[in-house]
Design goal:
The complex is a heterotrimer. By secondary structure, chain A is of the alpha/beta class. Chain A is built from 8 helices and 12 strands. Helices cover 35% and strands 28% of the residues of chain A. In chain A, a hairpin with a 2-residue loop joins strand 1 and strand 2. The two termini of chain A are 27 Å apart. The model of chain A has no long low-confidence stretch (mean pLDDT 91). Chain B is α/β, with parallel strands linked by helices. In chain B, the strands form 3 sheets. In chain B, strands 5, 6, 8, 9, 11, 13, 15, 16, 18, 20 and 22 form an 11-stranded mixed beta sheet that branches. A 10-stranded mixed beta sheet of chain B has the order 4-3-7-10-12-14-17-19-21-23. A two-stranded antiparallel ribbon of chain B has the order 1-2. The two termini of chain B are 29 Å apart. In chain C, helix 2 runs antiparallel to helix 4 and helix 6 runs antiparallel to helix 7. Chain C contains 7 helices and 17 strands. By secondary structure, chain C is an alpha/beta fold. The radius of gyration of chain C is 21 Å and the shape is globular. Classes of the chains: A alpha/beta, B alpha/beta, C alpha/beta. Chains in contact: A-B, B-C. At the B-C interface, strand 21, strand 22 and strand 23 of B face strand 16 and strand 17 of C. Strand 23 of chain B pairs antiparallel with strand 17 of chain C, so a sheet runs across the interface.
Chain lengths: 248, 494, 416
């Protein structure tokens, strides 16, 4: 589904990704871990098309299509979803309006008629309940005045409504208490299916207790330096990253 | 609000296709037009053709002589060539003098067609475009160049005691009321354009709400400039007696012409004790083309006088049109505990220039005012917020809160903020907050990463930016305003 | 800024006569001075109406008053700060301090009219501080500008500060006086790349004085300019403060405080122009007006077309002690670039009645409570002064000025 080969990217003059390679097949959950500044968020942002990063070498394809040349919205309509590390506030634009526009953008992309507003609303409400977001919050501005935990749950809500084929969740677990973490994990698990894949970018092993990954990768100094099964996460928890950074 | 925003999103696709100024057509109709030129004779002619009493002519002539000694204001942040006032025709009417149609059947079908195209209902059974609830009627005064074509629902309103007609009719039919209030809020020598208007004003609306009456329906005036080389000199007067209430809407369009047209208006509002006037404008005069050719010069003096205690005047404006806008709807807070409000969205694109804002003059005790201004500049346009809050020494406990935000789209436009806070009472609390920025890249990336196109993302973020003002508009105007915003910013990004 | 001032006619002739009497005793090129005088004669004093940035201050009386050139005099005594160098001007002439640090050789022709031209024609002396690249002024330079006049007198100073790349200096300009006088001071300062200038302006003009200062500061690449302004006088004072962020990455901070009572008139016109990318500016003004005082603060942030990534913020806060006083706050933005973040806020009001009640409920009398809260209001500006002896001296002078202003308002109105 997702194939990243020898990806190099930089912000300004600073090279962050230095040849990252990763293959994600349908139905798989991958966790990418690594020390601060290793390039985890950069990888997530580059895949989603953030204009602040420049790709200098390598390729990334989604279902065989080169996504690096696409706009962020084209990537999204092709089934890519980025859960932001720091969800953005968009004042005056309600969550419902954003979701509706996003769903219809996908319909239009696929040449389908607009979504039925009543059905869509029912679906959003139901998903909101799933991630414990009050229905009233749906009418508020996107992330406007939301607490840190609410913002993260709102990201999961958007994911559940938009049903992406590939979700990249950038530290969606950080800053959450254990209850909120379970809610987020349940949301991620709810979307698991043989057609969909998930990439969890995380700092901590904790999330992986609730969302069992198929593979765990370590990103250090802009490269995947080690890959393994769920047991690798436990090892990292015990040994830290030092031993891998030296190897890189 | 939810429903309105969603309506807009659905309409997006259609909107983005209709790139041009769709009100830019000309009605091909024979008009009685006086030759260009301004003199005492022109004024006598206008007064005569409207069958005015002597005092009205005197008012005009005094204003004219004052105007001759005045200079155009030098301080607005706008640039335009000298206007040749002898090159403008001051009167143009689609029907012969004193042959105003008595009913719709007598109105030229071309005119009816014009208003139909503009979505303005002249049949009482019809609806203003966008009205969802069929039980909500809106009375319309339709003004075409220098004359009022028809005023709907006069009879129904009359039963409630509400007078709603053109100012020309009012001067003839209710001279004592008009004489008492005309020029009492905006004196004829107030400023250059107000003086000009007082000398040559042609038509506008007159509203009188008697004591204790809540006007049974929304009132509206639709201004249309049609004829080339004519000026439109709107004059509107609204009086709300004690404990009465009225909501009034105003819309404006003009054909697409290469030369500039002048619209110099004076609007006076008087609110007596406990009365409330809500005045909403969606201004969509022809803005000129993308090269800055043509467009309406919109020089307007709008002022409300909260004359009675606990009265309230609220201005809401959405300004998307005109080549040049010079406009400061103001409130004089004379009555104790009176309230003034100003909510404004101003959008400029291409070569448009706007210098707009408000004046809140606190005289009475415990008076309150709120100002919310949202400016959006795109293309090579230039816009300024200019707002004065003045608290006189006697205005114990006066309160003002001003919020003033500007959004710039592109690096060739300008957005400016000129607030004046003049405070002479120690118990006053006056707060002003302002921001200027572009649409944040983070917001754009976030919205686009959800699959929404760049243009839709801009439109969505801009509408969100204006939400605090749109929510003050009557429902049908809010829908209209959001559409206009999108159309105005067409092609501003990328 | 438009200066469409027109000549006010015959009264200005007295200034020409004054010039003719004085020019021989003034340093530099007399012909050049005469050109400046003619420029002044053509533009005159700003008129009462029609010039936006003079809408709250009327100086037309200057044209009608017969001034004599102020006489040389000796320095009055004043308290001195430790580890500080002093330069003292009395009535426009340096009387104490390093001779190399003052003197006028030439006043360059300039475009400016009005008061700046008048100053160029009449200026008799001024600070000259030139630091070579990398040089640091080890001790603060304290410039006392004392003026006096029994009969109406006039004197004019022209200061110049030039800091080479990475040079650093702290300069304090303290203008004060006695009697009836009209003084102007024009400062031209230029900061090279990476230079740092801390500039203090303390104004304590006499009740009968008109003190008009104009400053032009150009801030170079990555240079930092920090200005502190204290208006504590009782006459008519105005400062036209023009700061240009001339090169990439310049950083400007302006802290200003005005305390005014009786018939004091203080007008601060701060114009910060962002002319280059990545500039950062901060303006923080606090004003207190009692008696029949008039306090004006007009802060304009101008962002030029090319000044991308500008970051600016302006805060204005005013406290009115009396309902016969007046404050006029005008936080302006003029922006010609979309890649900016410019905010401003202005608030005018009285002391918070809840806070006042709280203090009184703790047994503090109302007068003291007011004083405490008012001091708290001004201390945010005082706290920014990094030099401790200077800060303490300012705290004392501000405190005295405040006490006088508060005492004049007592007995205070009953609070809520």
């Amino acid at each position: 589904m997702l194939e990243i080969k020898d990806l190099h990217a930089r912000i300004g003059d600073k090279e962050i990704l230095k040849g990252a390679t990763l293959i994600v097949n349908p139905g798989e959950v991958h966790a990418i871990m690594g020390p601060n500044g290793a390039g985890k968020s950069t990888l997530a942002n580059v895949l989603s098309g953030h204009a602040g990063y420049t790709v200098t070498a390598g390729t990334a394809t989604l279902d065989g299509v080169d996504i690096l040349s696409l706009t962020p919205e084209e990537r999204a309509c092709r089934g890519l979803f980025l859960g932001f590390q720091y969800p953005v506030e968009v004042s005056g634009v309600s969550n419902l309006v954003l979701l509706k526009a996003a769903v219809n953008a996908r319909h239009k992309f696929r040449g389908e008629p607009e979504a039925n507003a009543v059905q869509l609303l029912a679906k959003v409400r139901e998903r909101a309940k799933q991630v414990e977001i009050d229905a009233k919050m749906l009418s508020r501005g996107v992330n406007e005045g939301f607490s840190g935990g609410e913002k993260k749950r709102n990201e999961i809500l958007q994911m559940l409504v938009l049903e992406p084929r590939l979700a990249i969740l950038d530290e969606t677990d950080s800053g959450l208490d254990i209850d909120a973490l379970k809610v987020v994990a349940n949301g991620i698990n709810a979307l698991r299916s043989p057609e969909r894949s998930t990439v969890l970018v995380t700092h901590y092993q904790r999330l992986l207790d609730y969302v069992k990954p198929d593979y765990v990768h370590v990103l250090a100094a802009g490269k995947i330096v080690k890959s393994g099964g769920p047991e690798l996460a436990l090892e990292l928890e015990q040994r830290g990253y030092g031993w891998l950074e030296e190897a890189a | 609000m939810e429903a309105r925003v969603e309506t807009r999103t659905q309409d997006n696709e259609e909107l983005f296709r209709s790139r041009e100024y769709k009100e830019g057509f000309v009605t091909d109709i024979e008009q009685e037009t006086v030759p260009p030129g301004l003199s005492e004779d022109t004024i006598r002619f206008i007064s005569h053709i409207k069958g005015e009493p002597e005092w009205a002519l005197e008012f005009r002539l005094r204003a004219y002589h004052r105007w001759l000694k005045m200079k155009r204001p030098w301080w607005p942040h706008v640039h335009y060539p000298q206007i040749d006032y002898q090159d403008i025709s001051y009167y143009s009417s689609p029907f012969a003098a004193k042959k105003k149609p008595k009913s719709l059947d007598e109105v030229d079908p071309k005119l009816l067609e014009t208003y139909k195209k503009l979505g303005v209902p002249l049949q009482e059974q019809a609806q203003l475009a966008g009205v969802v609830d069929p039980s909500r009627n809106v009375a319309v005064d339709a003004i075409f160049d220098s004359t009022s074509i028809v005023t709907t629902f006069r009879e129904k309103l009359g039963k409630a005691g509400v007078l709603f007609c053109s100012i020309s009719d009012a001067i003839r039919d209710y001279p004592e009321i008009v004489q008492k209030y005309l020029g009492s809020v905006v004196p004829f020598g107030d400023n250059f354009y107000a003086a000009l208007n007082s000398a040559v004003f042609t038509d506008g609306s007159f509203v009188f709400i008697p004591k204790g009456v809540r006007c049974p329906m929304e009132l509206s005036t639709y201004f249309r400039i049609n004829k080339g080389k004519t000026g439109q000199f709107e004059r509107t007067l609204i009086i709300a007696e004690d404990h009465s209430h009225v909501s009034y809407l105003e819309g404006c369009t003009a054909p697409q012409r290469d030369e500039n047209q002048l619209h110099a208006a004076v609007v006076e509002l008087v609110a007596l004790e406990g009365a409330e006037i809500k005045y909403s404008t969606v201004q969509n005069w022809y803005p000129g083309d993308e090269n800055g050719k043509g467009g309406v010069f919109n020089f307007v003096t709008k002022r409300g006088d909260c004359r009675g205690a606990r009265s309230k005047i609220s201005w809401t404006q959405v300004e998307t049109g005109s080549a040049i806008t010079w406009k400061y709807p103001s409130v004089i807070l004379r009555g104790d505990e009176s309230v003034g409000e100003f909510y404004s969205v101003s959008v400029t694109h291409h070569f448009q220039q706007a210098d707009t804002g408000t004046k809140m003059t606190h005289i009475g005790k415990n008076t309150r005012s709120t100002i919310v201004s949202k400016g959006i500049a795109a293309g090579k346009s230039d816009q300024s917020y200019r707002g004065l809050v003045r608290v006189y020494a006697g205005a114990e406990g006066a309160r003002n809160h001003t919020r003033c935000d500007s959004l710039l789209i592109g690096d060739k436009c300008g957005a400016h903020t000129f607030p004046y806070n003049e405070i002479r009472n120690r118990s006053a609390q006056v707060e002003h907050e302002a921001t200027t920025s572009k649409i944040s890249e983070d917001q754009m990336f976030y919205v686009r990463s959800r699959g929404i196109s760049e243009e839709d993302a801009v439109s969505m973020i801009v509408n969100g930016f204006c939400k605090d003002v749109f929510k003050e508009l009557p429902m049908e105007f809010a829908v209209e305003a959001q559409k206009l915003l999108t159309v105005t910013l067409e092609g501003a990004v990328g | 800024m438009s200066t469409k001032a027109t000549a006010t006619g015959a009264p200005l002739e007295s200034w020409r006569r004054l010039f003719d009497e004085t020019v021989a005793s003034l340093p530099g090129d007399a012909a050049q001075r005469r050109r400046q005088l003619e420029r002044f004669m053509a533009t005159g004093f700003p008129p009462k109406k029609g010039v936006e940035h003079w809408r709250y201050t009327d100086v037309t009386a200057l044209a009608r008053t017969a001034y004599a050139v102020a006489q040389r005099d000796k320095a009055p005594s004043f308290r001195r700060l430790p580890d500080t160098d002093y330069l003292v001007f009395v009535n426009g002439h340096g009387v104490e301090g390093d001779a190399a640090r003052h003197g006028l050789r030439e006043v360059a022709d300039s475009e400016h009219g009005n008061i700046v031209a008048l100053n160029a024609a009449f200026a008799s002396d001024g600070l000259r501080l030139e630091l070579a690249p990398g040089k640091r002024l080890e001790r603060p330079l304290y410039v006392v500008d004392y003026r006096s006049g029994e009969a109406p007198s006039t004197s004019h100073l022209r200061h110049r500060i030039t800091l080479g790349d990475n040079a650093e200096a702290t300069v304090i300009l303290d203008s004060r006086g006695d009697g009836h006088y009209f003084g102007t001071a024009v400062l031209e300062a230029k900061l090279g790349a990476g230079a740092h200038l801390h500039l203090y302006r303390i104004q304590e003009a006499a009740a009968g004085a008109t003190d008009l200062a104009t400053s032009f500061v150009s801030v170079g690449r990555d240079a930092a300019f920090e200005a502190y302004s204290f208006d504590l006088g009782s006459g008519l004072a105005r400062h036209d403060f023009n700061v240009t962020l001339a090169a990439h990455g310049a950083d400007v901070k302006v802290h200003a405080l005005t305390v005014a009572d009786q018939r004091t008139h203080v007008d601060n016109q701060v114009k910060v122009e962002h002319a280059a990318p990545h500039g950062r500016s901060r303006i923080d003004f606090r004003g207190i007006a009692g008696g029949r005082a008039k306090v004006i603060f007009d802060g304009l942030i101008l962002v030029d077309r090319g000044a991308t990534k500008t970051d600016s913020d302006q805060r204005i806060a005013n406290l009115l002690l009396s309902s016969r006083a007046e404050v006029n706050a005008k936080p302006e933005l003029e922006i010609y670039n979309d890649d900016v973040r410019c905010d401003h806020g202005a608030a005018t009001g009285q002391l918070d009645p809840v806070q006042l009640f709280y203090l009184r409920s703790r047994g503090i009398d109302e007068m003291t409570a007011r004083e405490l809260l008012t001091l708290a209001f001004v201390s945010t500006v005082l706290e920014t002064v990094p030099n401790e002896p200077l800060r303490e001296m300012l705290r004392e002078r501000v405190g005295q000025r405040l006490q006088a202003a508060l005492a004049a308002e007592a007995p205070a109105e009953a609070s809520a």
